[in-house]
Amino acid sequence: MRYEQVKLAEAAQHFGRLSQIVADVRVKTGREPIDAMPMLEAFAKRGDTAALAWDGNQLVGVTCLGLCHHFIAGPEWLPIKVLLAREGYDLSKMGCSHFVYLSPDYWGGGGTFALTEASRHSNPAVTHTLAHTLPSKEMEDWAAALPGMVDIGLPNPNGDRVFVRELDPQE
Question: How far apart are alpha carbons 157 and 132 in whole angstroms?
Fold first, then answer.
C-alpha cells in the first residue's frame, strides 16, 4: 500500500470514493451511517491535510489531520488546554488525526496504523498530535499502547482518556 500526504482540498475529486469507503466501514462496524461528502468538504475548507491510502490505482482509505483548536474549541476543553499549556505544549502546533477510514478489505495488516501515521506527518507545522474521543474502548487501549503516547491524566468532557504524542521529525 502507498500513502499520499495531501491538502484535503486537493483530493476533492476523490470525495465520492472516500464517501463510499466511509459507508462501507460504518456498515461493517455497525455504526450509524453518515453523509461523508459535506464533512469532507468542510474539513477541506478549513484547511485540513490528509493521508490517502492507495492499492495500485485504487483509493482504499483516508485519515485527516486538523489543527487541534478545531476540536477543543469549547469552554469544556479549557482544563485540558490549560494543562497542556502548563506542560509546555504549543497548542498552535498540535494536530488531531480524525476521520480514519480504511476499506474493510485492508483491515488486519497494520494499514490503519500506517495510514494514521502518514496523516500525522501531512502538515509540517504540526509537532504533536492529540488523541481523544476514540470510537471504542478497544481503540482507546490500542492508542494508549502506541510508542510515545502519553496519557495526560485528565479526561475529555465525555470522560474519555486524552493522549498527546510527539512527531519524530526523522519518521
Answer: 10
